[in-house]
Amino acid sequence: MSKPKVFEKPVGVKDYLPHAVSKLRQIESSVLSCMERWGYDQIMTPTLEYYDTVGVASSTSDQRLFKLLNNRGTTLVLRSDMTAPIARVVSSLLREQPFPLRLSYHSSIFRAFENEAGRDAEFFQTGVELVGDASAEADAEVIALAIASLQAAGVEKFRIAVGHVGFLNGLLEELLPGRAECQGKLKDYLLNRDHVGYRDQLGRLGMTEQVQQELKGLLRLRGGQEICTQAMSLTPNATAQESIRHLCEIWDVLEAYGVSEHVLIDLTMIGDFSYYTGMTFEGYAADLGFPVVGGGRYDNLLQQFGRPAPATGFAVKTTRVLELVGEEQEAPRRILIGYDGTGRERALAEAIRLRGQGAAVVTARMEAPGIRHGEARGSEEPERTARRLADGESVKFGGLVYGTFLPFFDGNQEEGDER
Amino acid sequence: MRTDGRTEGDILKVAMPKGRIYKQASRLFREAGLLINEEVDESRKLIVEVPEARMEFIMAKPVDVPTYVEYGVADIGVVGKDVLMEENKDVYELLDLGIARCRMSVIGLPDWKPVINPRVATKYPAVASQYFRERGQQVEVIKLNGSIELAPLIGLADRIVDMVETGQTLRDNGLVEMEEIFSITSRLIANRVSYRMKNDAIQSLCDRLQAALGAKA
């Protein structure tokens, strides 16, 4: 590759200019304060972790981790999710704290070699982990909180799809007992969203027509609570039945929360099997081609850090929400204080007083408005004075517009001396 | 980014492949009972409203269809398996439409013998690389954009990987099909979000198409 040009950045990373940052901060703070109202305490963990601990435990595949070496030759990773670092903290620093633990975070996440569209190498996630509670209540709590978070972020039209990895595992074990390889193939097709390949594969497994029909029917198991009833009748397998009962209970809790209208049960939706152990869910917003929320239950992660415990959680993809939500209300207009050598002391004292009251104040030494000193010498030359705009209130100075102008100049103290 | 999501209702945005596959796809859609005016077939517009079927067609170059669908600017699309295999996008592959049937094959001269530095010319570099890698053969893949059959005739490559429909072009140029890699038909694909947000419209389209396909079989 040729040497980068001076304005270039590595592929997949972004700059956020003031306008975008203020929107991002607003989303971040509304979502975090929503999580706080649900009893989740915010934590921060480092950007760098060891590859052999957090890197290996994370759900991110190896080639998608950013790896680097420290000065001793140990492999480090840039964190690729917050779940594994939180599992490390829960098992070490918070070891003495009793379960359940409710933790929230807002953090930048790094993933390399993303060839899927709409994915960045660095992006923001705001999320929670509920550790030490295996109940359906806990799963429903994180789903309901995901819904509340999207609403707090200002996403108006969205839908949550909920599935359960146990159902598919149980169903396949029932219909293809002991044929792990076939089961794996079918799961791979579903994981890759290839329903055509899944149906073709069914035809090649030498199953009875009835079994094939049942497995094909799986692709239609999407909808409301009635899906649970349909799924129940599909298999007597204990794992599958247990999973469906768990989903039914989640649904009941979500109904009690009054949010089930946003939820769709989808038994074809399966997360990464090596990571998720129970309920999984994804959130979709109208007008955005990619999911905005992802989450689920991961009961095997914490034991890798020495404190086995069930856990469930989700993350809002904050950077994507940014594309969705409208403009924030106009920020309160800033005050410009202009002064010259004589007015400086009073001007800066006034600025401090106003800032103390919460106003945003910019101070600038300038020439008193109205005084002209020769011609402007090109566009890079700083402006020498503020110009009043047509509304009589706001002024323009240095390319920016201010709502109020307070002058402190020799000879027109009366304007700045009102107090 | 689309902004008027609410007013769209359940109008499906369909990325349709321009050219060869389009006619077969629109015929199949009609067989499934969708009211698609014949005028649409002749139109040269890039975005065609099909209000009777509650659809909007986006006329795309076939190889771009998965891209439109992955980004969600189209909810669903019709595209050949060859393109899906080559582009490897994150979309739902819902239905085998059984149209535009052909196959992806390795092709060479009848007297082909293993060479020291094997070179394979193709329009499908990802498909070709994967195929030979899985067979433990290290080959140099050369991307060409058309008239792939030329490559073995003039010595650019010793074999090619290309789509074969009737095999007539191959016979006319004295080439033979050596191995079939996979068979190709057009597929109905869907965006991950649309698949959930427009679940009813997409499922009912699938059902109607499946019924039409069943009637033909």
List keywords for this structure.
heterodimer, A: 419 residues, alpha+beta, 9-stranded mixed sheet, 35% helix, 21% strand, elongated, disordered C terminus, B: 217 residues, alpha/beta, 6-stranded mixed sheet, 5-stranded mixed sheet
In words, what does this structure look like?
In chain A, β3 and β4 form a beta hairpin. Chain A is elongated, with a radius of gyration of 29 Å. The relative contact order of chain A is 0.12. In chain A, α4 packs across α10. The longest helix of chain A has 20 residues, at 18-37. Helix content of chain A is 35%, strand content 21%. By secondary structure, chain A is α+β, with helices and mostly antiparallel strands. In chain A, the strands form four sheets. In chain A, strands 1-5-6-12-11-10-7-9-8 form a nine-stranded mixed beta sheet, with helices on both faces. Chain A has helices at residues 18-37, 51-57, 83-91, 136-153, 165-175, 180-191, 195-203, 209-217, 226-234, 238-257, 318-324, 344-356, 413-416; strands at 41-42, 48-50, 67-69, 75-78, 101-110, 122-131, 158-164, 222-223, 263-266, 279-285, 293-297, 311-317, 335-339, 361-365, 387-388, 395-397, 400-402, 404-408. Chain B has 217 residues and is an alpha/beta fold. In chain B, 34% of the residues lie in helices and 28% in strands. Chain B contains nine helices and eleven strands. In chain B, strands 2-3-1-4-11-5 form a six-stranded mixed beta sheet, sandwiched between helices. Chain B has a five-stranded mixed beta sheet with strand order 8-7-9-6-10, with helices on one face. Classes of the chains: A alpha+beta (419), B alpha/beta (217). Chain A binds chain B through residues 115-118, 157, 159, 161, 193-197, 199-200, 220, 222, 264, 266, 282, 284-291, 323-324, and chain B through 1-3, 5-6, 67, 70-73, 88-96, 187, 191-194, 196-197, 199, 203.
Helix coverage percent of residues of chain B?
Answer: 25-40%
Beta content of chain B: 25-35%
Give the overall average pLDDT of chain A.
87
Strand content of chain A: 15-25%
Quaternary: heterodimer
Number of helices of chain A: 13
Bulk shape of chain A = elongated
Helix-strand pattern of chain B: EHHEEHEHEEEHEHEHEEHH
Supply the helix-strand structural class of chain B.
alpha/beta
Q: How would you write the strand order of the largest sheet of chain A?
A: 1-5-6-12-11-10-7-9-8
Class by helix and strand content of chain A? alpha+beta
The largest chain-to-chain contact, stated as pair and per-chain residue counts, equals: A-B, 29 and 28 residues
Number of helical regions of chain B: 9
User: Order of strands across the biggest sheet of chain B?
Assistant: 2-3-1-4-11-5
Kindly, what is the distance between the CA atoms of the first and last residues of chain A, rounded to a whole number of angstroms?
A: 64 Å
Radius of gyration of chain B: 19 Å
The gyration radius over C-alpha positions of chain A equals 29 Å
Unreliable stretches of chain A (pLDDT < 50, length at least 5) are 413-419
